[in-house]
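Minutes, methods subgroup
Present: GH (chair), OT, SY

1. OT presented the first of two proteins processed in the latest run. Sequence and C-alpha cells recorded below as shown on screen.
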Amino acid sequence: MSFLCTWFGIFCPKTPDPPAPPSDRLISIDVSGPTEFVATLVPDMFPPIVGERQVPEAPWHITFPVPGSVNGGANIQIVAEGWVDSITRLSVQSKTVDELGGIPTTDTQCDAVQLIPATPAVHPRRGVPQLTGRVFSDADGPYLALGTSLFWAPWAWTNDREKLNANLAYVKGRVDYIRVLLAVGPGGLWDQRLSTMQSIIANDTLRHLANHAYDNYGIRLMPTIFGTVQGTQLERDAFVDYVAQTSQELGEKIHHIEVANEGDNNGFQREKLIEYVARIKRVYTGAVALTAPVSQSPTDYYKDSGANLMSLHLERDVNGTGGVWRPVRQPREGQATGWSWSSNEPIGIGSSVAQDDDPLRLTMSAALTWLCAGATYVMHTGAGIYGIEYQASTAYRRANLWEQPTMSATLDGLASLRRLLPADLPNWHWLNGNPNFADYPFQTDPLVKEDSVLRSFLSTDGTNFVCMPIRVAQDTPYIARRPMQFTHYDPLTGEMLGQAQLQPGESYVLTGAPNGQKAAIFIGRYL
C-alpha cells in the first residue's frame, strides 16, 4: 500500500500511536482555620479520595493521591464541626485541565482555602445597656458583661469586610460586644490599619458597623473614640459630637463609650477628656468612661470627671508573689476604687508586657473581675489589636481571633462561668479571706498561707455567697464560721465537683494541684 501511495503521489498518514495511559498525580490544597477537619476530593464519576495531611501545623497542607484512571469533574470538600463547609470546584487553572474543567492531569497545587466559623442562631440582647449600680442591665435584665478587643474593625469595615465577618462570626453568641478604636494611627503597624476621623464621618462607619454587627451577629459595639490624637482641636470636637449623636441614635447597638485609650500616653489632657465626657452626656444616655489612667491613681483621675464607668488596664506583671497567677488577682485593685469599673485590657493571649494563653487563668481573670465589683470584662488578645500576623515582643500574634490556639477553650470557659454565676454579682458585698474581714464566712488562718492558696475572694448578698480560690497549690481546708451549704464547681466546664453542708468548725478540703494550676468556684448560701 505504501508503494502505491508513493507511486501515485498520494500522501498516506501514518496510523497514530495509541495515547499513553494517564499517570497517577497529587492534587494539593492548603487549609486554614480549624485544627480538626476532613478533606475529601469527590470525583463526579469515581469513588471519593480522602486527603492526607502533610505538615504538623497550620496552614495544613493536604494532598490527594489521584490514580491515573480517575478523570472528569470533581469537588474538594472540607468539613469541620462548627465551621462552614468549603466546596471547591476544580476548574480550568492551567493547560493540564481540559477546557470544560476537571481534575488536573499532572501534580497541581490548588488555591488555598480559609474556613469560616459557623454562625449559630443567636437572639441579641434587647434594650439600651445601662448601669444599675455596678451591673450592666438592659431590657432582658442584668448580665455579666463580656467583650473582646477588635480594635481594627472600623478599618476592616471599609477595607476587608470578609475578614471582619469571619471574626464576628467566630465570637457570635460568645461575647456581648467588641471594643473598637475609631480614630487611630498613623504610626507603626497602625499604618496598615489607619482609621481617620474624616473617613469615619464621611462613610458613617460607626453607624454602618454597629448596625452590621448587631443585626447580623447579635454583637454590640463599644467605641473608644480616640486611639491616638488626630487632626485639629476643632476636628476632634466635631468628631466627639458625631460619635455621641450617632451612638444615641443607635441605642441598643452600643454597649458603652470610652473617650480615649490610655489618654495619658496618647497626648490627651485630663481636663479635655472631662470636657468630652460632658459633651457626650449632653446627648448620649448610656455609660461613659474617661480613659484608663496611666500616670495617676484611678480614683484621683476620675474624681469629679462626670464619667459613670471607670476603665482600668490592670497590671500584667507575672513576677513576684503569685507568678503567672498574679494578674488574675489584680481585679482587687478595681474593687478598691469603689467605682463601677471595666477590665478593659487585662493580660491575654499575645498581649504586650506579658501574655497568658492559659484558659483557666483567663477564665478566672474574668470571674474575679465580676466578683470584685467589675461591671464588664474585655477578653484582650493579640489578634484583636491589629489583626496582623507577626512576631511581637511577648508572643507570635495571629491575624484572626480563631487562629489563637486557646481562644476557643477560653470562650467556652467564660460561657460556662456566665451560666453559673449570679447576673448581679458585681453589686454584692466583697470580702477578702484574711483577718481584716470579720464577716468572712470561713476561718482565715489556712487561707493566708500564700504557698497553699494565693487568694480566696468572696462576695455575698447577705444570704448567698460566691467564693473563688485561685492558685491552689496545697490541700486547703475551708473551715466554716457559720452554718452554710455550697457546691464546688470546675470553672472551665461548670462541672459539679463536690458539695458541702457545714456547721461552724466543720471543713471542706480543697485539694491542691502541682504548681498551683488550680482554681475553684464555690456557690452557696448561709443556713
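2. SY then presented the second protein from the same run.
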Amino acid sequence: MKTPNKPKLLVLILVVTCFAGSVFAQYAGIFGYGLELVGTGANAFDSSTTNLYALNNNGTTRLLPLGSSATLNQTAWSNGTPEAPVLNLGTFYPGAGDTLTLLGGAMLTYQGGGATVGNSIYLNYAIDSVQGPYGNWIGNDLLGVNQTNVNGTTGDTRWSDETMNVNLLSGLSRGTYILESYGYANSTLGSLYASDGGANYGATFTVNPGPVIYGYLSRFPPQSTVTSSNEVAWMAKYHINYVQFYDWQWKHHVPLAGTVPNPATSWTNVANLVCYRQTVQDMISACHSNGMYAMNYNLMYGAWAGYGQDGSGVDSNWALLTAINGPQWSISMPSGWATPTIYIFNPGNTNWQNYIFGQENNVFSDYGFDGWHLDQLGDWGTMYDVYGHSVDVWTTFVGFLNNAKAATGKRLTFNNVGAYGMYSVCADTSDDAVYVECWPANGQTTYQDLKTTIDNGISWSGGKAVVLAAYMDTDKTSGNFSAPGVLLTDATIFASGGTHLELGDGGYMLSTPYFPNTNVTMSSSLANTLTNYYNFIYNNQTSLYGGFANSGNIIWTSIPSSGSATNGEVWAFCKVKNGVSMLNLINLIGETNIDWQDVNGDYPVPTAQTNFSAKYYYGSTTPTSVKVLSPDINNGTAQSLSFTHNSDGGGNYVLFTVPSLAYWDMIIVN
C-alpha cells in the first residue's frame, strides 16, 4: 500500500539542552489516536452505538473525549498488514438504508521541558479500492482542544471533533474498500505523526448497492443502431444492469480483430459467425444509456489451433498438459467452427498472464467495455505444466484474477463453473459478484442446492451479489420453455438472495451454455410474467438483497410445509435483519420432482393454496405488522394482514392467514 510522504511514527521528539551546567530535556509526542464512526446495517455495527476506534490502542480510556456519547472500541487497526487489514467493518447495502459515517476522531499529545504542541492537529483519511491505487486522501479535519492536563498529567492534551458527519459510502460503486487514516500534530520540535509504523491505519469494508442482474448479447450482425438499441432496451424492462457480450471477440488468444490503431470492421468468431464492430459499439453505447455495465467475454486461458504459427507470441511452454510430458489440455470444437480445437494454458504462469492481460487491454483501448467476464471450463482434474509439476487449476484462479484487476483496472466477473474454486475466488478477490454456472453433475441438482450455492456465495464473499447461470429445459430441442419450471427456479434463486442469468438478445432465454442457441423460445405469456418477477425483485431489493441472514425461526402452516425443499409441500424459510423477518413460501405442492432444471420442460403448475393459517415463531421482539407480497398477485403490491400474538411450547408466535399462494409469497414481519 502506498502511503503519504511522511516519516515513521514519532511518538517522542526529545531535545537535550545545556545551560550553565544545567541539563533539561524538551519532549513532545502523540500517545493516542482514534476515529469515530457510526454505521447501520453491516455486521460490525450496532445502529445504537457510535464507536471511537483506538487505532493504535494507545491512551486506553483517556482517548474518549469529555462529553462524548461514543463507545471506546479498542480493536486496533494495526493488527494486520497494510495490504490486508484484519479489521473488516462489514458489508453495507446503501439501497437498503445502510450507512457508514465518519463523525471525527480524537488524539492525545504530551509535551514538556519547554516544548509545546501547536494548534494544527489534524485527522487525515482516505478511501481506496483494496486493489489500489492508494493515496486518495479525501480530506482532513482540524481537531480542537477537548481537555488539558488529562488525568491530572501536566502537558497531556486531548484533541477531538465529533461533528464531521462524512458519508463514507457516498459515490462508491460496488466493491471492497479500505478506510485509511493517520494523524498529524505540529510542535516546536517538529512534525508529529500517528501512523502504523510509517504506513496508514486501515480497515476494510464492502459496498453492495443492490443485486447484479445479468443479461447477455450473443449476436453482432450488421444492423441499424436502432435495432441494437432496441435489443438492449428490451433487457432494461427486466432491470438488467450487467450484460455479457458472449463470444463477441475474434480469437480467444487475440480477442481484438485488427490492431489498436486500426481495428477491423468485421471478423468471424469461434463459431464462424460474423461480428461487426459498429454493432458491438452501438450495443455498448446502448448499455451505457440504460445504466448497464458492458462486460467483454473471454476465456481466461484459451488459444486457437495454430497459435504457435500465427505470430501472436503465445508460447507452448505456458501450456497445461494432461499428464507429465503428455499432450496439451484441449477441447474440441464442433465441425465447421473457426478452430477445431481450443488449447488451454496455465493461469498461474505469469508469462501467460502478461500476454493475455495485454490482449485484453488492447480490447479496452478500442471498445468502451466496462469489464471482463472471464470464463473457464470447470474441474477436469489435475493438470501439469511443461516442467512436470502438478497443477490444481483452481489454485491459480485468485492470483490470476487479482493480477487481471491490477493490470486492466476494469470490473471483473468470473464463472465459477460448477462451484469449482468458488471458495477462494469469493474470499480472496475483488470481483464484482459471485457468478456460478450450475450443473447437476457438480452438485447443483435441486432447488435446495441452488439456495445452498447462493448462501455459500454470500457468506464466503462477505456479502457480494450472487448470480447463477442456470439453464432450463436442457433436453428440449424445440417449442416453448415450460413456465412452471422457470418460475419455481426463479422463485428459489430470488428468494434466496441471488439473481438468474437467463434473458438476453432482445427477447430470448437460455437453455444451453451456447448462448446463440434459440431452439427453445420464450412465450409472450412467460415474458410478461417474468416482467412481474423482475419488477418484484427490483422493488423489494431492500429485503431480498439487503443483507438479511438465514434464521432458524420456525414457520408452521396448516398445509403441508417444510423448512427444506420437498416435493408435495410448501418450502418455508426465513431471513432476518435488524428486527425485520422475511418469510418466503415457495409452493411445491403438486410437484413430484425438486430438481430445478426441469430438463424435459414438463413440470406441472403447483396446486394453488388459499386462506391457510401460518404461525411464525419470532423469538423475543414482538412484531407490530405483517404484510404479504407476491409477484404472482396484484403486481407485487403489499397487503397488510391481521394477526394475533400467542405462545406455546415452541415459543412466542404470530398467527395470521395467508390469502393465497401460487408460486411464491414473501411475508414481511416487522
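Chair's summary of item 2: The first strand starts at residue 13 and ends at 19.
Next meeting: continue with the remaining queue.
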